[in-house]
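Checked the freezer inventory, then went back to the computational side. Two predictions to log before the end of the day. The first one is the construct we discussed on Monday; recording sequence and tokens without edits.
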Amino acid sequence: MITIKQVHQIVDATTTLRMRTYFWTVYSLGLRLNEGLHLQVGDIDAARGLVHIHRGKGAKDRYITLPTSTLLMLREYWVTHRNKRWLFPADGRNHTLAKKGVSVAKTPMSEAAVQGAMKLITTKIDFGKKKSVSTRCGIPMPPTYSKLA
């Protein structure tokens, strides 16, 4: 578990609007990795302040309240790619912006892109000493194991 302060550190440490928007969206809506990646433009109901999540846990659809801060950030990011389907379209050689800055990506951003960004961010941020499963549970580690941590 990470703290709210650490979430803000992660968001602040991102170097691209794309990842900052993705991390904030996932955090503020309480989404899982793939739920965030598969958000579509049509899932956002700005008028009602809701987001439609398709095939969530247990393959169930649900609606989540959309915070104003998240809506504003999504709008700011969307104008950079204007993909008609995906809020977070794939990026790279095969998914360049077409004329007039419209993304032609047919797939969402990959898990690897998010994981790579998170790895870079966590190397920049020091969350304190490294912790093992035992120290997270409040169980002191035996002397031989504490030297390895």
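The second is the one RB wanted added to the comparison set:
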Amino acid sequence: MKIFNKKKTGQTIVEFALIAALVGIVGGWAFIKMNPGLFRNYFKSSVSSTNNIDSNGQMKLCTYDDNNCTAPIPPAPPPPPPPPGTCDPMAIGGVEPDGSVYTGNASGNDLCTTPAANETLTTWNNGAGGNLVTGANNALNGIPNTNTLKVLVNAHSPYQAALYCANLNFAGHTDWYLPSQVEMSIIYVNRAAIGGFSPSHYWSSTEVDGEHSCVIDFPNFGNVQSEDKDNNQRVRCVRHD
């Protein structure tokens, strides 16, 4: 009687599958050993970066997780400083970087004026007498008054006081103007800190009527007075940013 060591078909299939799997593992390992760079790059591109915070808590410049991120992202730059020569608030009478003098706040604007050396003595109009209304009657802001007067052409133009300020080039600025009644009054209040004022009347750009404009009477407690436009009085220009 012959005895055959015959395996069942199912057992043979299982053994074959195990052998194939083993061959696949060994072959894959051999492929990886022969191509380490390919596998490493694939692994790096597939793993999210978890080591991109350095010991100081700064985010580092990492494109993938290589455990070798050393360059921190630079901090955001500080805001730029204000351009030189701006009229920034400071102690009244303080000298700005451009050489102008801080005079205080008027109607929400920080005003700067010139040193005394830039004053002048002139008439409000061209020196002509008579009655002629200009419409430069803003009591709070001298800019619209000056803008009106510097281009006005009539029997009383040029309007010397306003034109002097409009043409002034000082401290790198050409936007000076003849202050309004209120602006000139604020300058009077702060006159001691600002310095350099004469015991005189100072023109404002605010017109009273066809014959008169407002002056600030420095010797007489800064009273606002009506002055003939053809009289010579002091002029101190102002500007703001």
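For RB: The CA atoms of residues 61 and 205 lie 61 Å apart. Residues 9-34 form the longest helix (26 residues). Let me know if you want it refolded.
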